[in-house]
Design brief:
By secondary structure, this protein is of the alpha/beta class. It contains 17 helices and 13 strands.
Length: 413
C-alpha cells in the first residue's frame, strides 16, 4: 500500500450505507490521511463530525429563483440537451418537470459544496454510486470547482432499461462526459455502458469490489446425510426466492434450506413465496429455516462456523458481482446462480454452477443435485473457490488498488 495522502479525500456515500460501502470506507480510512464522507442522509448522533458532511436537501422558493437566474444558460442547455438526447422516448419527455427539479436540486447542492471542493481541489472526489451524487461531481467538474472526479457504477444506477416506463436515466451522458473515470464493479456493467455510450468507452474501467477475509470455512459437513443450502436477501420480486422453494419439490435428497433475509409482505411475489413454502410442508425430505433479517457480520460469522453445501441465488437481474456470492466464495462455499448481470464474474466452473435466468424448475433441481453430489463436498474444490476469490475479490487487494487508480486518474483522463 502506498504512503498515505496528505489531502482530504471526498467520498460521496448513500444515505443507508450497505455492508460493501462500510468495507470500502474502512479501507479508505486506512489509505488516506483524512476522508470526508458526503451524504444526503439526516444527521446521525453517531456520525463523527469531522468525518461526515451532510448535503443540504431543501431550499426555499427564493433560493431556487435566484439560482435559476444565476445559472439559467447552463441549466437550460443541459436540460434541453438531455431532454432530446439519445433514446429519449415520449414517456421520458413527459417527465420533464421531475428531471428539471432534480437537476435544479443537484445544481444547488453543488453550489453548497463549492468551498469544500475548492479546499480539496487536488484530490479526486468520487461517488460510490453513479447517481445524483455523481451528477454533483460532474457539475462541479464542469464549473471548474474540482480538477477531476470519478464514480463507481453498479447496476441499478446505470442500467437504463430497468427503468420501467422511460428506460432512460437522466443526465447519464453528462456524467460520462465530465467524469474522468467510471469504475464498473462488473464486466457486465462495463460492457453495457461502453456499448451504449461508445464515445466515453475509454473512461469505463473494471474495478471489482472486495470482501473481508474471515478465513476458510468448514470443509467437513455438520450433517453428512443432509445437504445444506443457503440464500441471502430480502424476499422481493427481483430475487425470486420463490423459485428455490418451487425447485426443491423436485428432489429426493434430504435438504435443509436456510434463508437470511426479511419478507417484504407488500411485494407482489410474496404470496407466491409463502404458498411455495406451504407446499414444501408436505415434502418430508425438505426443511426450511427462515432466519429473518440478520446483520452482515452475523451471516459471515455463521458461514465461518457452519458447513454450507451451496449458496443459491436465482435473481432475475444483477448489476455487479453480488457481494453475498463474493462473501460465500471467501469461505470456499460453492455457488449456484442464475447467469444475470455480473454474476458470471464470480460464478464459473471453478466456483460453482451458472444456470439460465429462465430455467426450468426440474432441470434446475437436477443441476443443483449434481453440484451437491459431485462438487460441493470436495475439499480441493473448496480450496479452489477460495483461491479464485483471493485473486479477484479480496478486499485487502482490491481497495488499495482502487485508491491507487484514483490518484492516477489525471494521467489517463
Amino acid at each position: 500500500m502506498n504512503k498515505k495522502s496528505s489531502l482530504k479525500q471526498l467520498i460521496f456515500v448513500s444515505s443507508r450505507q450497505s455492508s460493501f460501502e462500510a468495507t470500502e470506507i474502512q479501507w479508505a480510512k486506512q489509505y488516506w490521511r483524512e476522508i470526508l464522507l458526503i451524504t444526503a442522509a439526516s444527521k446521525n448522533p453517531q456520525d463523527n463530525k469531522e468525518e461526515f458532511l451532510h448535503i443540504q436537501t431543501s431550499f426555499t422558493y427564493r433560493q431556487k429563483v435566484v439560482h435559476v437566474l444565476r445559472f439559467f444558460r447552463q441549466l437550460f442547455w443541459l436540460f434541453i440537451k438531455d431532454l432530446f438526447s439519445m433514446n429519449s422516448s415520449i414517456a421520458y419527455i413527459k417527465q420533464w418537470r421531475k428531471n428539471f427539479s432534480m437537476l435544479l436540486k443537484v445544481s444547488m447542492q453543488t453550489e453548497s459544496l463549492k468551498t469544500v471542493f475548492f479546499e480539496n481541489q487536488n484530490s479526486t472526489p468520487y461517488s460510490i454510486f453513479s447517481n445524483d451524487q455523481s451528477l454533483i461531481l460532474a457539475l462541479a467538474k464542469h464549473r471548474g470547482y474540482i480538477n477531476r472526479a470519478a464514480s463507481r457504477a453498479h447496476g441499478r444506477d446505470v442500467i437504463e432499461y430497468r427503468e420501467p416506463v422511460t428506460q432512460k436515466l437522466p443526465f447519464q451522458w453528462f456524467k460520462y462526459q465530465e467524469l474522468d473515470a467510471v469504475y464498473s464493479v462488473s464486466r457486465y456493467t462495463q460492457s453495457y455502458i461502453q456499448n451504449k455510450y461508445p464515445s466515453y468507452a475509454n473512461k469505463i474501467r473494471l474495478m471489482h469490489l472486495g470482501t473481508k477475509d474471515k478465513g476458510m470455512g468448514p470443509t467437513i459437513p455438520n450433517e453428512s446425510e443432509c445437504f445444506i443450502i443457503a440464500s441471502i436477501g430480502a424476499v422481493r420480486n427481483v430475487k425470486r426466492f420463490f423459485l428455490i422453494a418451487e425447485m426443491l419439490r423436485f428432489t429426493g435428497l434430504k435438504v435443509k434450506w436456510i434463508h437470511f433475509g426479511n419478507i417484504q409482505y407488500s411485494d407482489a411475489t410474496t404470496n407466491r413465496f409463502l404458498k411455495a413454502l406451504n407446499d414444501l410442508k408436505s415434502t418430508p425430505n425438505i426443511s426450511v429455516d427462515l432466519k429473518g433479517y440478520v446483520s452482515n457480520e452475523l451471516i459471515l460469522e455463521y458461514f465461518s462456523e457452519n458447513f454450507i453445501d451451496a449458496l443459491v441465488s436465482v435473481s432475475e437481474s444483477e448489476g455487479g458481482a453480488p457481494v453475498s456470492i463474493q462473501e460465500a466464495a471467501s469461505f470456499g462455499i460453492p455457488c449456484f446462480a442464475t447467469n444475470v448481470g455480473g454474476t458470471n464474474d464470480i460464478v464459473n466452473d471453478i466456483t460453482g454452477k451458472l444456470i439460465d435466468k429462465d430455467f426450468d424448475l426440474k432441470e434446475g433441481m437436477i443441476e443443483l443435485e449434481n453440484l451437491l453430489l459431485g462438487f460441493a463436498r470436495s475439499i480441493e474444490n473448496r480450496k479452489a473457490i477460495r483461491g479464485f476469490w483471493e485473486r479477484n475479490f479480496k478486499a485487502s487487494i482490491n481497495y488499495p488498488k482502487f485508491f491507487d487508480y484514483l490518484r492516477e486518474t489525471e494521467s489517463y483522463a
